[in-house]
Design brief:
CATH superfamily: Glutaredoxin
CATH topology: Glutaredoxin
CATH architecture: 3-Layer(aba) Sandwich
Structural class: alpha+beta
Number of domains: 1
Shape: globular
Length: 186
């Protein structure tokens, strides 16, 4: 009987960490190796999961930077999360090489990637100010399959999701799967 209250307390604590922003950090680290919190208390946080070695992820770098700049004035924070085994120096070099000026974090154990429900890079997740995932999926439909892309996307799933969230409307699921490099096991 004594074990049951302790068990309930443990389950409650885990539930708070998974569901809300009450945890210390999100399982991610900044580029100095310190535990960090990827989510902000602004209206929304868009997290782009990327990898230094993924060619599709790298092709999206200009669009990711453009979206980050567009949303900066709309109470939408953006973060890059590297969910691979990249070193801090490799991430810094990648940011410089691709002109990315977005705060970058590392998630080598895939804690935030699992919480967001993402499986490939590039893939995005939108969290509300309470840390709830409102959207996870592709950025747009530019990539049809590996090695097959369109010159311009015809559907911008992530932009549609952020616009719906900002307008107080329900966020729709992406129109198709994200195409990219598997995040794989930690």
């Amino acid at each position: 009987m004594k074990g049951k209250p302790v068990f309930k307390l443990c389950v409650l604590s885990i539930g708070i960490c998974v569901a809300g922003s009450g945890c210390r950090g999100d399982g991610v680290a900044d580029l100095n190796g310190r535990t960090a919190n990827a989510l902000s208390k602004t209206q929304a946080t868009v997290v782009f999961f990327v990898a230094t070695s993924c060619p599709i992820s790298n092709r999206y770098a200009p669009e990711v930077q453009r979206l980050s700049e567009t949303w900066a004035s709309l109470a939408v924070q953006t973060r890059l999360v590297y969910a691979g085994d990249e070193s801090n120096d490799e991430v810094r070099a990648h940011l410089l090489a691709y002109g990315l000026k977005i705060p970058a974090l590392r998630d080598p154990r895939h804690v935030l990637a699992r919480r967001a429900g993402v499986a490939v890079t590039p893939e995005a997740a939108v969290f509300n100010k309470d840390g709830r995932v409102l959207y996870h999926g592709r950025i747009d439909d530019r990539w049809v399959n590996f090695g097959v892309s369109k010159p311009e996307p015809s559907r911008r799933d992530l932009v549609d999701a952020v616009n719906a969230m900002l307008a107080g409307k329900p966020v729709q699921s992406p129109g198709g799967p994200a195409v990219g490099c598997s995040i794989g096991p930690p």
